[in-house]
Specification:
Number of helices: 11
Shape: elongated
Distance between the termini: 32 Å
Helix content: 25-40%
Strand content: 15-25%
Order of helices and strands: EHHHHHEHEEEEHEHEHEHH
Structural class: alpha/beta
Strand order of the largest sheet: 3-2-1-7-8-9
Largest sheet: 6 strands, parallel
Number of strands: 9
């Protein structure tokens, strides 16, 4: 592991807003995928117990959408920072693989990964889904039905402790595509070191920022590349005056 004083460590908390710019519909948008599907009927353990076929069909449709989507300028700017020698760790609430496809190597998915299936009896047993979906009757090596590798409402977030440890090592914390009111970003932001600046990139940043958070009121695809250019030029993580007026 590199000494992070000489090699600044950028920790990114990303959420639905960064993927929305790649055309992946969000939960809350009025035209979102969820508009036709009450969450209780497709994204809870109870829904799975009641009608697994419906749940599988819903996630098959989401998986198709993810495969068609492409990483946007925000994903690419983060990957390029890493390629240029910054330590970049991404903790994402997103279940798509757009960060990885852009080239980011250290990505923790808090809510699982849509392009994987997992055993319904052993959460450690995961299987990549390079194509196709999951059908009733598709089983894990222990003979149990496969389910989407996503964290449903009412389920624990298995990698949360790992995320806390990563955020605790941040030299700068960048929050993009998720509001600070939504768990788990809301609690994770408090795990960053006191000295680490916290930056929120969001079109509504002025309304969303809380004390100690620097807001940049731009969409992810504009705000993240803007910051990345400043950081690459200086070789350090800082709050550029031209952007934040400080």
């Amino acid at each position: 592991m590199t000494n992070h004083h000489s090699n600044p460590h950028l920790v990114v908390l990303s959420g639905a807003g960064i993927s929305a710019e790649s055309g992946i519909q969000t939960f809350r948008a009025a035209d979102g995928l969820w508009a036709d599907h009450p969450i209780e009927e497709v994204a809870t353990p109870e829904a799975w117990a009641r009608d697994p076929e419906r749940v599988l069909r819903f996630y098959d449709a989401r998986r198709d959408q993810v495969r068609r989507a492409r990483p946007n300028a925000a994903h690419k700017a983060l990957a390029r920072l890493e390629a240029d020698g910054f330590r970049v760790s991404i903790v994402t609430q997103n279940i798509d693989d757009l960060h990885e496809r852009a080239g980011s190597r250290r990505v923790v998915h808090l809510h699982g990964e849509i392009l994987k299936a997992r055993s319904s009896v052993d959460a450690r047993m995961r299987y990549p889904l390079p194509r196709g979906g999951i059908a009733l009757g598709d089983v894990c090596d222990k003979g149990s039905q496969l389910r989407p590798d996503v964290v449903w409402f009412g389920e624990a977030v298995p990698r949360f402790e790992e995320a806390i440890e990563i955020v605790a090592e941040a030299d700068l914390l960048l929050v993009v595509g998720t509001s600070l009111a939504v768990m788990p970003a809301a609690s994770l932001i408090d795990e960053a070191p006191m000295a680490a600046p916290r930056v929120l990139v969001d079109p509504e940043a002025r309304d969303l920022t809380t004390a100690g958070v620097h807001g940049l009121a731009l969409p992810a695809g504009e705000g993240v590349p803007l910051l990345a250019r400043h950081w690459r030029r200086e070789g350090r993580l800082w709050l550029p005056e031209a952007v934040f007026g400080e």
